[in-house]
Write a structure and sequence with these properties.
Blueprint lengths: L5 H18 L4 E6 L5 E7 L1 H10 L3 E8 L7 E8 L5 E9 L4 H15 L6 E4 L3 H10 L4 E4 L1 H11 L3 H12 L3 H14 L1 H10 L1 H4 L15 H9 L8 H11 L5 H4 L1
Parallel strand pairs: 3-6, 6-7
Antiparallel strand pairs: 1-2, 2-5, 3-4, 4-5
Amino acid sequence: MLHGTSGDSFQKLSSYCHVLGESNPGTVTHIEVDSRNRFYYFFLAFGTSIRGYIHYLRPVICVDGSHLKGPYKGTLLLTTGQNANKQIYLLAWGIVDAKTNRSWMWFMSNLKELIGDSTELVFDSNRKNSISNAIAHVFPLSQRGYCIWHLEKNLIQRYNNASAIFLFKLTARTSRVEEFERLMGQIRRVSEHAYGYLERAGFSFWSRALFFGQRHNILTDNNAESLNSILRHARSLPITCLVEHIRQTLRPSNQCNCM
């Protein structure tokens, strides 16, 4: 009763975004509807988040998505950065029907309008094709990094070779090419299959030593994963309540926990 119905919440979203923009100057919101004027996509970046990223944060963005739990389902997309204290910094986020090529393309296009594209920009995410395709199309100058935690999980599920997994974690983090080659040789000796999987993934996408850009200390998309965990209960709320919950979570009094 407190939150209202999910249908009513969609009707209130546009008015809520208008008020949100007035109270937080520079906030960018986009609501996409279909031919029958039904909700389709939603994008939001708080004005303070945009300014903070552009002026103070390193250009490394973690990307992830998680399923919503309300009656209309959908997917929550997140892009996060990391501040100088290694704390999570929410840059922009949105709600779409599913993690598809079209939804990621729409989301990334809106993000590009805020931060532009450059050779210094790095995206860190899992290896989902829909994410890779959108980044390659919308941010052609940027560099693409794979989350080594997801690669490690896949190695465990597919090959379950403790020695290969231990060596992989060392290999991914070393910054010396000679050390990388030596460790990869050891991986090949203990598990030819694990070596083949990492080779197919592309050494330059997950190895710090061979990466073309600068990932700094961000080798996983755990920043986005952690924020998804913080919002796990809120993902069942009606859409306008969810937006307000995220705003409340990120307000200055809670920065020590989330920002």
